[in-house]
Amino acid sequence: MKKLQNVKYGEFWTYFVLWFVMFASPMVSISARASIDSSFTFHWQAVYNIWRPIFVLFVVFLIHNFLIAPLLFRKRSISAYLAASFLLIISFQTYQCTYHPEDVPPPEFVEQMKASGSTNQGMEGSHGTVNPRPMPDDRPPRPPIDIHDIMAFTIMLLILGVNVGVKYFFYSIEKTRKLEELEKESLEQRLEYLKYQINPHFFMNTLNNIHALVDIDPENAKNSILELSKLMRYLLYESNKHIVPLAREVEFLQNYVELMRMRYPEKVAINLNIPSSIPDQQVPPLIFISFAENAFKHGVSYKQESKIDIAITVSDEEVAFSCANNKVTASDAPEKGGIGIENTLKRLDIIYGKNYSLNITDTEEDYRVNLSVPFLKEASNIENKSK
Amino acid sequence: MIRCIAIDDEPLALKQITSYIKQVGGLELVGAFNSAEEAQRKLSETNVDAMFVDINMPDLNGMDFVRSLENHPIVIFTTAYAEYAVEGFKVNALDYLLKPFGLDDFKRTVEKLRKHMELISGAVVSGVDDDNAIFIKTDYKVVRI
After folding, report:
1. A205 and A56 share one domain
2. pLDDT in tens, chain B (145 residues)
3. A178: containing domain
4. Measured between CB atoms, which of A212, A262, A302 is closest to B16?
5. Do residue B58 and residue A330 have CB atoms under 8 angstroms apart?
6. Do residues A186 and A210 share a domain?
């Protein structure tokens, strides 16, 4: 929104500068001439004389800018725009041809004329009267169109053209920006859509276990409730941001694994290796969990040795997650687990492009996932990544 | 005494149901198993009246396990998932305990079980009728002899 404001101001300032130059130029050129030519002195009257036609052009510009150009840019009606600007041109031309206010000559010019005894028409001087404003009727009849009219017409067309050009320039900037915003929005929506959703069964199972634990081991039950509430806090309040602190993401994984540990008997070996100190870095939320969930889903058996190894290692630039489970031939409930991983990968594609690595080793005995993602900078967001 | 077993892969859930079984009178716990396979062995060795079976288990799920048994005892499913209920009735489950369940829920189910057992033990449904046949209730069916 702020950027759109800037665009609006940009257009305004462009016009302001252009018209400032237009209005300032007579002052500059006259004072420049005065400084070069000693017989010529700067006088405001001369400036006013030039300002007057410029002011007329300025009015034409205002009408075009605020009344006619919107027809083209807002209403998108080319014919209405053409008709209106045609009317404007005609009325300007009519004004130009019919109304010729006479320039008021600068006083010293009058003095000069008076001194030399000559006048425009040789009339005033002979009577010795000073009439700074020559009688219009006394001037020779002007031709219907002279070079001034053509010049004025050309300048007016130029002004209108520049007006449309400038407007179009800022209009297209605004349009591109809006388009980019839309794109970003749709990308965000895609990310939201792909966001990991924890299996609702997980909550039911965990609550069941806690319920059972209350009778058997109340102290442990309390801990599990805390564990679950931390996990839910992360899922409900924190994971909807684009980036989260790595420490929180790791803690979430830890909570999850602890709660899962409660479910299984001791013969299921669950190892979670987490570095003792986690750097203050950012990652996208919920990027590891679907792999861990998958490992529990396919890696637990009571008939054979089951083992789940999850490890996180960090370097200066990235975090590496590894998750391995030995495969068990489980006659599992209907397959649904693939979606979570698939969506996580789609999300990573959107966020990182090709800038992350994933290795899946799928053998007869075990299934191993190695995922490395670079840390995200605070400022870097999906807008930059999507380009 | 009603002889029963409990099958649940999750140790906590199994502990809970065994403690319920012990708390409620009239039930004798023959065995508690965390997999269907172990339970199957027990079933082939000894006579069991009723079993509490979890459905969602790795290796072999409770529903398939019950289907695989030819002459299964009275089945009561214990599961967190309501979506198996219809399937449960197809395998003639007596009841369906939705986890988490409390002792009261469990007692209600046991009461149902007890009544059912009484019905079975009082197997003869009606006296001799005109055709010299009697009706005997067996395996939830009334059979004409």
Report:
1. no
2. 899 999 998 888 999 999 999 999 889 999 999 888 889 888 988 999 999 999 888 778 889 999 898 888 999 999 888 888 888 888 889 999 998 899 999 999 999 999 998 887 765 555 455 556 666 656 566 666 6
3. 2-100+142-190
4. A212
5. yes
6. no
